[in-house]
Amino acid sequence: MNTPLRLGIAGLGTVGVGVIRIVRAQAALLAARTGREIVISAVSARNRDKDRGVNLGRYAWEDDPVALARRDDVDVVVELMGGSDGPAKATTEAALDTGKDVVTANKAMLAMHGQALAERAEAAGRMIRFEAAVAGGIPVVKTLSEGLAGNAVSRVMGVMNGTCNYILTRMEAEGLGYNALFEEAARLGYLEADPRLDVGGIDAGHKLALLAAVAFGTQVHFDAVELEGIDRVALEDIRHAADMGYRIKLLGVAQMTARGLEQRTAPCLVPAASALGQLEGGTNMVVLEGDAVGQIVIRGAGAGEGPTASAVMGDICDIARGTRGTVFGQPATTLAQAKPARSALPAPYYLRMLLADRPGALAKIATILGEAGISINRMRQYRHDDDTAPVLIVTHRTTPAALETALAAIAPLDVLASEPVALRIEDV
Ligand code: HSE
């Protein structure tokens, strides 16, 4: 048997504890599969006295994660603290600079500093593995970088924030509004420390930017992701979408086009009968499209102790086996700087607007849509509230630019009683 692989775990939240449990419970299986024992040398967290339900007595303790990263009895630093900068980044850099590989679940750090960290790791002959950073237990990074290495990937998309999917599916199932479900998600501990990361689409954007880098051989460019969250999705939109055979999902979509790399997260309508449409609760789903393989759909738990620790362990096992590789599927210095492109691919759109219930109101809207070259597919005026009437329009395929032009012309109209809602109907 080879020498043991020695871990230093920085961060003892849900995932850190999950990793400790697997290392202990599956010691024999891990050794059989990797040909060496996997052991924990040292751990680090903010609070030493907290009861985490696992005995930490047999591991060295470090208050400072950077000191943990520099220890001589650690081969791999497992960074599970989170946060794009601060201790997580300092610990990762210290690990690389002292000759260790890094396994991390930190999507924010890699979305912001992935290129610099990958170059630093590869210059030092080290690796950063980050399967757990994207879609929890779903092995999507491995699937893209290894299983699909022979494909030109055209599109990567999916539901990669379980909290948003939980809120949206509960809104539909329970008939409750966004605010009530946001409170419920907070009570259940589903929200990130800063909930805007979840409901603002930022967390899904971080994950999408990482997948886009692997899929397209481009440098991670999170700032180019067009971000939209779920906070403006109303219960009535979910109901109308359901009436028409759709569900609303927070979709992340990255695709390479002749104009450049499109990356966007936004609530979209998808067919209720599609795999994405049927995704319930906190589950994640990623759809990958390659020229040779066609479409692949992977589904699984996007968060939680077991699933996220499972992804961390997959990376640790690769390192234990001696599998070496690059951070983003090809040497970091060869990753292209993709030109960011605003979404331009045509799609049908769902529009909901509250109009003054008076002669000619709807005609004004229809005229503006027509002038923007947008053709109406379906339309319904479904209820009257005193002197206003909610109107629902589904367009034929049109470009985001045409829609923007129309919405800008509609915005100042005196017949408009509230801001229109426009949601893309995604072809999945
Ligand atoms: N906040 C994330 C989610 C956790 O809801 O999916 C996993 O990254």
Explain what this protein looks like in three dimensions.
The chain is α/β, with parallel strands linked by helices. The chain has three domains: 2-133, Rossmann fold (3-Layer(aba) Sandwich); 140-302, Dihydrodipicolinate Reductase, domain 2 (2-Layer Sandwich); 349-425, ACT domain (Alpha-Beta Plaits), CATH 3.30.70.260. It has helices at 14-25, 27-34, 65-70, 86-97, 107-123, 140-147, 162-174, 178-187, 196-199, 202-216, 235-243, 305-321, 361-371, 400-410, and strands spanning 5-10, 38-44, 60-62, 76-79, 101-104, 128-129, 153-159, 226-227, 246-257, 260-271, 283-290, 294-301, 349-356, 376-381, 388-395, 421-425. Strand 9 (246-257) and strand 10 (260-271) form a beta hairpin. Helix 1 crosses helix 12 (305-321), helix 5 packs parallel to helix 10 and helix 7 (162-174) packs across helix 8 (178-187). Bound molecules: L-homoserine (HSE). Residues 136, 161-163, 192, 198, 203, 302-303 line the site of L-homoserine.
Structural descriptors:
428 residues, alpha/beta, Rossmann fold, Dihydrodipicolinate Reductase, domain 2, Alpha-Beta Plaits, 6-stranded parallel beta sheet, 36% helix, binds L-homoserine
